[in-house]
Amino acid sequence: MLQEIIGQVSAQLSAGLKEKVGLDQDQAKQALDLSKDSLVSSISREAISGNLDGILDMVNMGASANQSPVFQNLLGGLDKDLISKMGVSPAIAGKISTVVLPVIIKAISDYKEGNLDISDLTKMIGGGLGDSLLGKAGDLLKGGLGNFCK
């Protein structure tokens, strides 16, 4: 599902990367592919660490998501991935990140008009990891409710 959302904004992102960063078509495609992979990986790490509420808060913030601590973590992770895997300078990585990440997060938020829940998030992350996160969220809820009832 995340691929579909990114696909919907890929033309806008590609144009932004060419215009604002000076990338050619191939570099823009590489940056978008890497951004998608980095975003999924970073969101997964945040979720596994138990920060599901932080992720949901960020994606449901829409245009102001850049004020979220999770957004800043994603931005830092994307910068590192662009530098190490694409071989761009830190300055170029920063430009790419600030073009790509806000648009992707807004597109995710717009997917359900800022009303995403945990099942939406796991569908976006997809596959076994999404199922694992959903199970972990369920376990946390059961534990929390179980302790509440004691």
Please count the beta strands (DSSP E, at least 2 residues each): 0
Q: Can you tell me the number of structural domains?
A: 1
**Count of alpha/pi helices:** 7
Average of pLDDT = 81
Note the run of SSEs as H and E. Answer: HHHHHHH
Gyration radius over CA: 16 Å
| Structural class designation | mainly alpha
Helix percent band: over 70%
The major pleated sheet works out as: none
> What is the terminal separation in angstroms?
39 Å
Strand fraction equals under 5%
- Contiguous low-pLDDT stretches (5 residues minimum) are 144-150
Q: Based on CA inertia axes, which overall geometry fits?
A: globular
Provide an overview of this structure.
The protein has 150 residues and is an all-alpha fold. The protein has one domain (2-117). It contains seven helices and no strands. It has helices at 2-21, 25-48, 52-60, 69-86, 90-111, 118-125, 127-149. Mean pLDDT is 81; it is low at 144-150.
List keywords for this structure.
150 residues; mainly alpha; 0% strand; disordered C terminus
Write the topology of this structure.
Elements: H1 2-21, H2 25-48, H3 52-60, H4 69-86, H5 90-111, H6 118-125, H7 127-149
Give a brief outline of the structure.
83% of the residues lie in helices and 0% in strands. The chain is an all-alpha fold and 150 residues long.
